[in-house]
Amino acid sequence: MSTSIFSRIIDREIPADIVLETDRMIAFRDIAPKAAVHILVVPKTEDYANVVELAAGDPQLLAELVATAQQIAEEHANGEFRLIFNTGPSSGQTVFHVHAHVLSGALEEGSLGR
């Protein structure tokens, strides 16, 4: 299995606009934003390809991811946000390293962001 683009960002092999980093989590702006605020929250482990695997394997890390998303929303979006996990290619997942999209700003009910 090859190293994910997110691991390469974590290792600083690829530049990113990092907005938050902890020992177990990194968050950075999406390079193709779908909303005024579009930040990816990524655990620093490649052990989980998607949120289902993360929930089964490390629920505490999933809770930390959600708390990180809340912190980002408080700092960048008045605490209001949409949290999206894509699971599988047909849902729009293109990087198989678990991550969440924090979206905010001019989102309407029924709109779908990736």
Strand order of the largest sheet: 1-2-3-5-4
Q: Strand count, sense and closure of the main sheet?
A: 5 strands, antiparallel
Low-confidence stretches are none
* Number of E strands: 5
Structural class of the secondary structure composition?
alpha+beta
Distance between the termini: 25 Å
Succession of helices and strands: HEEEHHEE
Shape: globular
**Helix fraction by DSSP (H/I, runs of at least 4):** 25-40%
Q: What fraction of the residues are assigned to beta strands by DSSP?
A: 15-25%
SS summary, helix count: 3
Tell me, rounded to a whole number, the average pLDDT: 93
Q: Whole-number radius of gyration?
A: 13 Å
Description:
By secondary structure, this protein is α+β, with helices and mostly antiparallel strands. It contains three helices and five strands; from the N terminus they run αβββααββ. It has helices at residues 5-10, 51-57, 59-76, and strands at 18-21, 25-29, 37-43, 82-84, 100-104. A five-stranded antiparallel sheet has the order 1-2-3-5-4, covered by helices on one side. α2 crosses α3 (59-76). It starts with a helix and ends in a 10-residue tail after the last strand.
